[in-house]
Prior knowledge:
Distance between the termini: 24 Å
Order of helices and strands: HHHEEHHHHH
Amino acid sequence: xxxxxxxxxxxxxVVLSSLAVGFWESSQNFGEMTSVLDSVVADPTxxxxxxxxxxxxLDVWTPGLPVSMLPSWLQWIGWFYPFAEGYIPHFSIWVCAxxxxxxxxxxxxxxxxxxxxxxxxxLLVAVLAFVVGWYVCQLIAWWGIGFGADLLGLGSTEAYxxxxxxxxxxxxxxxxxxxLGTIPLSIVLIYRKMGGYLF
Length: 199
């Protein structure tokens, strides 16, 4: 097994474990979990779609980083998430993949219809498109938590209650540093899975 394969395996385990932590904590809301199971049995197709949307969206927003843990000169980032009760989302493999694809599409379209070179204005377009794609994906995921929950037969209040319990459980400094430390592993996983298509 090469070093790259080993890092990829570790990255995948970390990504899956971060999702598992959120669901483990949210399972304390047993009533909500029972409603999900009832919905899956009653309408598997609709509930299956809802479960996928809810799971991916919850993974984007779990764990959450408390804005108060950021250095004072970075706390302005919280202004972009006034709806998230003092949290901002951690790095997410879903968001990074979406932002890369979004940036590639916007940049290629811009270069096609202009005379710009990539290493000039095209690079600026790529960076700006990546930042915009990152934020847009997070907003879509926030909406997806409620939408997926509605398809599952949960209300939005219950869905965001599940999210709140998950981020509260992962806000200890130890876990925050753990998730921050795994960012490079997630990037390795994205590069190995998508690098051949984008570069």
